[in-house]
Design brief:
about 180 residues, alpha+beta, Immunoglobulin-like, six-stranded mixed beta sheet, four-stranded antiparallel beta sheet, 10 strands, about 35% strand
Amino acid sequence: MKLSRKGTMELSLGFLVTIIITIVIFGFSIIFLKNLFTGATEISYELDTRTQQQIESLLSQGQKVAVPFNRREIRVGESGMFGVGIYNIAGANAIFKLNVSGGKDPKTGLEVLPVSNVLYTDTLEIKNNEQDSSGILVAIPDGTRRGTYVLDVVVKCEKAPPLSGACNAQEPVYGWLKIYAEVI
């Protein structure tokens, strides 16, 4: 079977058009993925400088666990960051564990936000007489009812060198506080 010159030209142009369309679709896919990942990195655990400065100020005043801004307005479908600082005055290097759980505030009766919407680093290793901070990211999914939600943040002193006395086995809770997400 012999192809005519015109048929060969049509086949070549068809193949060329297919290649160009494929390259254009691939390019748009790359741009879409780049935008998707860039948006995801904007929601990070990084605390802003104002929050970091407030944490350092509170910890330098002698507080063991500090949250400078424990109440934050967050729109439905968005997220908000709370900063938590820990000052190790336990007497030795220690490992601190953060636990964030939903709890209804007995005084106000505020609602509980599901913990599945909360991201945080749960373990911080802090040297004696030093401080560290971490972020607690609270995501408010679409469909969440407006109102004020409360989360309990418990910091426990988990591990320290033996016989240092840094972490008291009878009293492992190092600090406890509440944060409030006001969903608007």
